[in-house]
Amino acid sequence: MDTPALFFDTAEAFVALVSEIPHDAWDRLGLGVWDVRSLVGHTARAITTVTDYLPHRPDAVELGSAAEYLAAGFRSDPAAHAAVAARGVAAGHELGDEPAEVIETMIERVRASLASIEDDPIIEVRLGAMRLNDYLETRIVELVVHISDIAAATGLTAHLPSAALERTLQVITAAALLNDRGIAAVRQLSGRDGSTFDLM
């Protein structure tokens, strides 16, 4: 499956999960400083930033892959993470009383925007210039990770495309290697160093 199609399939899985969130769950603890509404708002930004960044077309690539973007994000200034947290809260409030419908509208805007795009242009994103498809791959990772967070916070079951899970694991593994965290990732995924992960 090509990257844009996988992005949209993953985004639709996000909408499906959001539509199941009970009314009394939106104020529950979501992740870190976020309640569930703020967590969903932050996750929705994985969709809206695509249309935000499309008009900005630099001449040269600075980030050569989704893994490079993810690795750079982990190395970014801690002050940037505080700003991300604040944007998540604001985005959550903007979802209003029908979050799933609002998010579906966001997805359709991205579909319309990408329908007119040819090839794989370079776009300017928060961490640097990169190819559109590589950025969409980072959005798949963002959606998958935060869909799992939302499911954990609400007790719901996430139904994600297997291809999205596979792509996410590939990107995260590659990012770990770029940040010299390959051995740490291996040990976490093999149940070492106190990790509770179990393949069975």
List the helices and strands and how they pair.
Blueprint: H1 3-18, E1 29-31, E2 34-35, H2 36-53, H3 66-74, H4 78-94, H5 99-115, E3 122-125, E4 128-131, H6 132-154, H7 162-178, H8 182-189
Helix pairs in contact: 1-5, 1-6, 2-4, 2-5, 2-6, 3-6, 3-7, 6-7, 7-8
The CATH topology annotation reads as Four Helix Bundle (Hemerythrin (Met), subunit A)
Lateral strand order in the biggest sheet: 1-2
Count up the helices: 8
Order of helices and strands: HEEHHHHEEHHH
Whole-number tally of structural domains = 1
Terminal CA distance: 28 Å
Question: Which quaternary structure do these chains form?
Answer: single chain
Structural class: mainly alpha
Task: Quickly name the level 1 CATH class.
Answer: Mainly Alpha
**Rg, Cα atoms, Å:** 17 Å
What brief labels describe this structure?
globular, 200 residues, two-stranded antiparallel sheet, mainly alpha, single chain, Four Helix Bundle (Hemerythrin (Met), subunit A)
